[in-house]
Sequence to fold (452 residues):
Amino acid sequence: MTATLQPTPTRIPGRLPLLGHMHRLLADPRGFFRSLHGTGDDVVVIRLGPSPAYVINDRTLVHQILTRDVRKLDKGLAYEKSAPFLGDGLLNSTEPTHMAHRRLMQPAFHHTQIARYVEQMREAAAARVNGWHDGRRIEMDQEIHAFAVAVVCRALFSSGLGDSVAVDVEESLPVLLKGVTRRIALPVGWLEKLPTPGNRRFDAARQRLAGSLGGVIEEYRRRGVDHGDLMAILLEARAEDGGPGLTDQQVHDEAMALFLGGVETARDVLSWAFHLIGGHPEVQRGIAAEVDAVLADRPLGYETLGELKYVRQVITETLRLYPPAWLLTRRTVTELELGGHVIPPGSNVLFSVHAIQRDPAVYPEPDTFDPQRWRDPGTPALLRTAFLPFGAGNRSCIGEPFAWAEMVVFIATVARRWSVHGVPGHPIRPARSPMLQPRDLPLIVWSRPGAR
Ligand code: HEM
Fold:
């Protein structure tokens, strides 16, 4: 059996001594992974600094890793580099802790809970949008960031105890993510310990966030918890055998996983969506027409979200073109046989959701924004492997229903009252970040005639 395997996948040329392919990763990360996808090889090897990394191009092999070989891999580089502030929460914990905590948190994402969050989301969206003025330039990415922080904070801390945490999250997360980008491109442990300005900013942001979250946890313990929010679920949780609940550190780590998993991701998708909407007047008209017809004079409620089908198509197409978690990482914990290759234990494994979702063999004109392609969304089997913005398998996004609700609520709230327009002469470019996010997104807003 082993004799038929090809032990060494193609090695990508052009690496520099010690730095490996870092220069290409930093210069044009998504272009680099797309070029690897274009080689036609199902698995290739690149170098991250001095260490090899296996890049999986074939989408059925990616699906196999995410759903079948889950015991042979843990989360790998991106999560290891986030561990100093993320701790051991859902995003990077290993089994059996991961599944035990996921089961514990699952009720918080049940549709009855989402219906409750929708009211908070509607209020948080209105709080942003009501402050806008006709013809005014707004920094849409910042508006959306404040909205995304507010909705996760309100779900976690409905008591309002988390208001101070919201400010700390808003300011600290971008600093932490920037540090993680550097640490992934050049994963050399001793460099992370040098007292450089970047490392000092990273440590200060980590301490600030940990301190403020720790303070709120202490306050919840002191006052007793009966708010029915996610923090209460975490603090009151007991193991299935009635054993001890989560320690403060575990509660802290799970809250951090929700912040990191839930804030930047939704911010990024919504920002790109508004960039695309602003540049496509026909799409903007389609959204406005649907929102007017479906909502009429009704308030935006959980039951109406599913009826906004065109808004959902626009979000789906945005998720296809701009998946925030565009590069997922894993590390083999045992030998892994994949598509005829043998990958040794301890190897970094990477795959680009971005490249998979722009594969011309699956999506005609893959770089074109075309929400209509989701009117009749293909065969489920194809989509399972070719559309992965929320991942797949046991580590898929627990917050997906929450994310859909907040994205639809925000777009519909804006579309009811405003039309958005790009700022002439201001190109929108991706930021240097492990997530796929626009560097900034200024837009001009005009109130819609007869808007409700
Ligand atoms: C558009 C918005 C979002 C996108 C695109 C997204 C994407 C993802 C992806 C791709 C993963 C899997 C990562 C991997 O396999 O390595 C993931 C996991 C996760 N997400 Fe999201 N996410 C979004 C919103 C949210 C929200 C709103 C929350 C919470 C409020 C959240 C919490 C999490 C958590 C806790 C995990 C880890 C799940 C586990 O390992 O069991 N996400 N997300």
